[in-house]
Amino acid sequence: MAYVPQTAWIQNGTIEENILFGRGMQRERYREAIRVCSLDKDLEMMEFGDQTEIGERGINLSGGQKQRIQLARAVYQDADVYLLDDVFSAVDAHTGSDIFRDCVRGALRDKTVLLVTHQLDFLRNAHAIYVMRDGAVAQSGRYHDLLRTGTDFAALVAAHESSMELVESAAPGPSPSPAGNLPLSRQPSSAPKERESASSNGDIKTAKASSRLIKAEERASGHVSFTVYRQYMTEAWGWWGLMLVLAVSVAWQGSTMAADYWLAYQTSGDAFRPALFIKVYAIIAAVSVVIVTVRSLLVATIGLDTANIFFRQVLSTILHAPMSFFDTTPSGRILTRASSDQTNVDLLLPFFVWMSVSMYITVIGVVIMTCQVAWPSVVLVVPLLMLNLWFRKYYISTSRELTRLESITKAPVIHHFSETVQGVMVIRCFQKQDNFFHENLSRLNASLKMDFHNNAANEWLGLRLELIGSLVLCVTALLMVTLPSNIVLPEYVGLSLSYGLSLNSVMFWAIWLSCNIENKMVSVERIKQFTNIPSEAEWRIKETAPSANWPHKGDIDIIDLKFRYRHNTPLVLKGITLSIHGGEKIGVVGRTGSGKSTLIQALFRIVEPSEGKIIIDGIDICTLGLHDLRSRFGIIPQEPVLFEGTIRSNIDPLQLYSDDEIWQALERCQLKDAVTSKPEKLDASVVDNGENWSVGQRQLLCLGRVMLKHSRILFMDEATASVDSRTDAVIQKIIREEFSACTIISIAHRIPTVMDCDRVLVIDAGLAKEFDSPANLIERPSLFGALVQEYATRSSDI
Hints:
Domain ABC transmembrane type-1: 244-519
Subcellular location: Membrane
Membrane topology: Multi-pass membrane protein
Strand content: 5-15%
Largest sheet: 6 strands, mixed
Number of helices: 27
Main location: membrane
Strand order of the largest sheet: 13-16-17-10-18-19
CATH architecture of the domain at 226-321 and 323-530: Up-down Bundle
Domain ABC transporter: 2-159, 556-790
């Protein structure tokens, strides 16, 4: 069984890897899958063809390209049963017709195909039709049989035919058109002719290396720099905070040693006075308790403040990062810094720093005490301490790099797990569970291998430090027993031996903790890497802030707009110039991947234009702060965005509107009944990405969101692609009424959606090929006229 979901699931990898999906390469079948899914021309326009790397979740592809790649993946598997869930909603009329003819009725003609669709054009060719209502099959049969029975199916067809009346009445008659007016999907590409796959000419390694979108994660090498230590130690309270911690730690060690000295002094003399002893000892103990309490609070406060500063820095940097950063950075890398690295900064580093400082001060105290009682032992103690430091240096050079490798190898595990969870239905349908299990196991092993070796290195160091500590204790005790009393102070021998016994563990912990500090400082190093990534433009610029009612007209002037996603990629928009008057309704059509959605991204400055200007109501949008710009627009995106929460929190995220206003918006966008049916009403649950609501309902909820906002300029990117014709007609009527005075730019594959627009913009290969009223474009040979003609006749031609 092969399954193509409504929301495309694409893996991070090359196009070839996504289509093969773990199967071996069969060149003829592979080329056929690409052809029948109309991917050949898309690959021609890509610099590296099928070796082009796809970003996480297909972030660098259009919706139609993602849909066709996963369809090609299903075709290549050569299954017996195909489940196709609304695969035509993201493609234009030409491409949809080609796919239905070449793929569904061609390559899959001998297969069982279950097609879920709102587009009734294709149903005449179905052997059986099942009409669903409220989760049950309401009708079943052939097309004409269902029409005769009336009810649900007849109502759907009537709504579809009603929407087609305007198209059919406007459609031009068949006439030969010049080469320049060929349909978009058949227009000769300006890209080079079909490339041979890199593997066919032996250049696959070179092609893959050149087409890498996501680079290997960078890591530092060698010692953690002093700058990293300084940033951590002084980020919150500056150098004064560090000096204060050191002073309090020294005071605590001094108070501890004072108590021990007092005990040794009083018990060694003949004139022991219990009352004085207890009073002084209690005072010293109380001072020690106060000091250690102050030290603990001080370390916890400074550590918490530092962790908060680092987290805010990373969060701010990521929120301000340009889209190119997310194109080339897997989410796993971001999550490891926000989880394991931040945990080290939050919990472990403050504790390790505090304990390490305490241990080293204690070591100094032990050495002072030992040398004071039996000074000849310094001859042995100092070399052994130097040996300890040598072992530390030898160990840390390995452990530090293992820690860096461990941090880097966690990201692929998180990324693969997240990707697997999102595509679990596809994986199960294709019976690829074992492949993903072994891949996950391989990535886990790669990460745990570093952790295992790091622990082994810890044990190696611990054994040697314990041996050295035992040797120091043995030699010190021997000297105290054998040396004459004029060299050894007998009254302090017990105290010295007590300190010597603790030297073993204290020295071990001092060295071990200092090594762990360096290892955990790798987390600070990695977090600081993310605070240095490039940033978007300023969110707010006071000097150029627009007036509160901007844009008040909605005029848009685009002048020679050129746009690329990253500096090393080809132009996607190649010099578009046009003017849109305030209140105009503009339809945007074109082949999938032609640059329609990119135009909206340019208007929102998701990526800054490479050249040209966009002027809205007399203001160059590149001079505005991003919040001032984006907050003035409304948008219904191609892939609806919902966040985990409730209906209320998604439709009114800033809590600006009353419940009555929210219910009115839900009623106008045809969602009131669906929400009312939920026991929680407006507090009905929305899971992550809105997975517990259909794609159509998610799009309608996004529509309700912009209805509440009342923006002067509205962008609609396939806003009704996943709803039926009847709902589409109702929504279009509502939009015309609600946004009658607004400027609307609507990207659509459904031709009826753009037929009542004031003007239609036809984009092909990044160029504005046509821009006129639908009537004028249809009257003359045009790309739009050909598109309308095919849309009107495809039901009978397929």
